[in-house]
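Much of what follows relies on a compact textual record of a protein's fold. Each token is a code from a learned vocabulary of local backbone shapes. The record below shows the convention in full.
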Amino acid sequence: MQLRYGMNPHQDASIMLPPGPAPVRVISGVPSAINMLDALSGWQLVREVAIATGAPAAASFKHVSPAGVAVAGPLDLTAQGTWSAGASPGPLTSAYIRARDADPKSSFGDMIAVSEPVDGELAAFPGGVVADGIIAPGFEPGTAGLLAAKKRGSFLVLEADAAYQPPDSELRDVFGLVLKQQRDVIPITAASLAVAAGGPLPAAAVTDALTGLITLRYTQSNSVTLVAAGATLAVAVGQQNRVDCVRLAAAKAATWWLRRHPAIRDLPVVPGMTRQDRLNWQTRLADGDMTPWQAAEFGRLFPAHPPLAPQEGAAWLAQLTGVTLVSDGYLPFRDNVDHASRIGVQVIVEPGGSVRSGEVADACAEYGMTLVRTGQRLFRH
């Protein structure tokens, strides 16, 4: 199969299809190499999350890592603001809205992945957001055509074969060498979660832990994710040390939570401003780090709406709670726990095995956190 291009437009690319049925069928559009990588990883992720949690799942994939992942669930007022139908969406649409709401700045131009066949409601939703395509295990009548018409006919519509079983090993050609390894198929279930300190995990925390672990299985390492109520609040990707993963995840989750402050959530609607532009201004307000040009432009667009005062933001952040931190590798030092304590983390899930694991456990006890160890590292490169 010929692709639009490879990693960059100047690189030619194609796919060598396996014998027999293909795992993915292109219904509409011409994908690039990155589109296909996002779609294939996104589909595997949502399929695993749906099986592990028993709920419809969705992911917003961007540059070979998820920007957000969620199972179906209720929308709060901030997420509800992206839904314009005047009523609560169905399970599959709610899962994608919750997934995209984790980091809407990064989800701009994403690949949508969903675990269930696309219905008419979900097919209509991407018209209000900027996305490149969708992969799903099926499409209800008329929905594929509705999606294919988006982006002036360039929207990618891919159908995954839910019955396809990949081979046991993976091959990668790098600089003339072919690397071969066993596919990562180690089970991720509730049985993987061994409480090392603290009380037993409630059902909601089990769902969050499983969602986080499966998310990291398909995220470029080193990586950490923060999860609450079945949805990622932040996914920190590809850092060279663990504490930077935690700090980045905490900063992203802080932005997610501050977007829910009434002073930011209720930013006035400016005539002629797109929903995405308004969302960008809300995110800049929550980040609290505007450039001089952005600050001047904000004052021009919203003259009667001052930025959130630092003490207000700090008080609001102190209200965030019930967050689960999941790490794809062991936490080597207690500073990871210290940073996690600032963003409402009550459960930490990690493989364990550090020479300082005792210090990590002691730090969790100091903050009243439950520490879960899986014995499973989930690196991906």
DSSP finds 14 helices and 14 strands in the chain.
